[in-house]
Design brief:
By secondary structure, the chain is α+β, with helices and mostly antiparallel strands. The protein has one domain: Gyrase A, domain 2 (2-Layer Sandwich), CATH 3.30.1360.20. It contains two helices and four strands. The protein has a four-stranded antiparallel sheet, with helices on one face. The longest helix has 18 residues.
């Protein structure tokens, strides 16, 4: 069975992998989303996310499986790596 432990900084909320990123300002938050969008599209695994000023809230869940899967863990790690570059 694959390890589906949430990466550091992530938690499970309402059955979804959840994280809130905070950036210095709106431009950095929006830049994070824009940068991540291309990689997300290549993975064909899209997050539920929203942006309010300097915050981006992300929820990950594999709808086809009805659960958190390896795809969600992989996307969480990818988002973390992008966020580190923009912080």
């Amino acid at each position: 069975m694959p390890d589906l432990t949430p990466p550091p900084g992530w938690s499970v909320v309402n059955g979804k992998l959840h994280r809130e990123y905070r950036f210095p300002d709106f431009t950095h938050a929006f830049g994070f989303m824009a940068t991540a969008a291309t990689a997300i599209e290549k993975m064909n695994h899209h997050p539920e996310w929203s942006n309010v000023y300097n915050r981006v809230t992300v929820d990950l869940f594999t709808h086809d499986a009805g659960a958190i899967t390896r795809k969600d863990i992989d996307l969480a790690n990818l988002l973390d790596s992008i966020a580190k570059k923009l912080a």
